[in-house]
Request: fold
Amino acid sequence: MRERARAIYQRLEALHREFFVSRWQAGLQREANRQEDAFLAWVFLEALGVESPASWYTLELYPEVLESFHQWHQRMGLRQFPEPGVCC
Reply:
């Protein structure tokens, strides 16, 4: 009985994914990328040359998002980040 219920649930989940999620997935991914770009810019404002009022609070986030920042600046068209010591 459990196996049958599990199979029905998996079919319903696949149907839901096909009809509802896949249609919006590109838009959702684009919005997630936009929000991640905004977050990284906010965390690294001082490295970008803008004084950040929240720099004391975001200092502990640097090690967590450094690899994401490296991928972000390459996606934005900068092979090497112009400020030494941030990444690369």
